[in-house]
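Fold Annotation — chain and its backbone

Encoding — discrete vocabulary of local shapes
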Amino acid sequence: MRRGLFCLSMFLMLALLLGGVSFYLKQPSSLWEGVLPIPVGEARLVLVHPKMNARQIAQAFFDQGALTEPSVKLARWMARFGLDRSFRPGSYRVVRSDAWNLARQLRTARPLLAKVTILPGTDIFSLRDLFRPEQNPASPGNGDLLRRSILDGRSYPEAMRAVLPAEEESRIAWLLPDTYLLVEESPEELVRVAAHAWWDRFGASTLSMASSDLLAAAKIASMVQREALWDAEGPAIAEVIRNRLKRNMPLQIDATVVYAWKRLGRKVTRVLHSDLNIDSPYNTYCFLGLPQHPICIPSSSAWDAALGSEENPYYYYVARKNGYHYFSSTYEGHLQNIKKARSE
């Protein structure tokens, strides 16, 4: 009798075990989630781009070696867990596993985002310092990846492409300075995000502007960025530049001379009289009109100043020790302001 009961008990236990294993293989449940730990093994870093649907996300995990089963299985588990509606782009570090265990990891995983900052005043040279050489590889005849990304129209909102200048050195003015959290630390991603940020900020107010007028504003904004230490003075400096342009006066902006020398590989921190002899279209002491390209990436406030409509009678300004400026309408007044600034 006891032997029969023992055999029956063993049979039932075996049946339950086989049934549980069979159920697990076909349809894991929350019970099994609590019992079975997530596997430990080889970690993989998988990049998920913005605007991917569940099927594309699952395929990305398969293509990048994190999934040991067909991607359709992961897509089903993502739908069951509700991940298909809330999945965020970014890089995910996961243990390579089957669809169910991978979906379990993704329920609590958070994307790893790269933080990249474009500072106001960044120029075409210092922009490249944001990336390591392996992140910004060069292609023979086409320049590095940053250049290719800046020149690629697909990096910009469609409505923005018609107003963009053709040259890389000008286009960087359309990247809005800010700190960005990128799904991938790459030039393509930075250009795309920063260009869309610029369009979100200024697109509506520039839609009616001709491309040539917008490029002129970009050049003025870049000079304001370099000349105005305090944002409050940006509109006044922008109007001084416009006033001098109307009277066909040389702009005489020191920042453009600094940039002219930088393009030749020389760093100038203080412009001396001897520095003004440089033969360059960026030398606004010798060449009339605006420089050939913007000299840096302007901030939002510098763009506001360049696009604004402040009016003043000034043609001259000189920097004070506190970073503010004295403005004047006449050269005689300018000379007096120079003396005043030096006596502070």
Residues 2-26 form the longest helix (25 residues). Residues 23 and 29 are 9 Å apart (CA to CA).
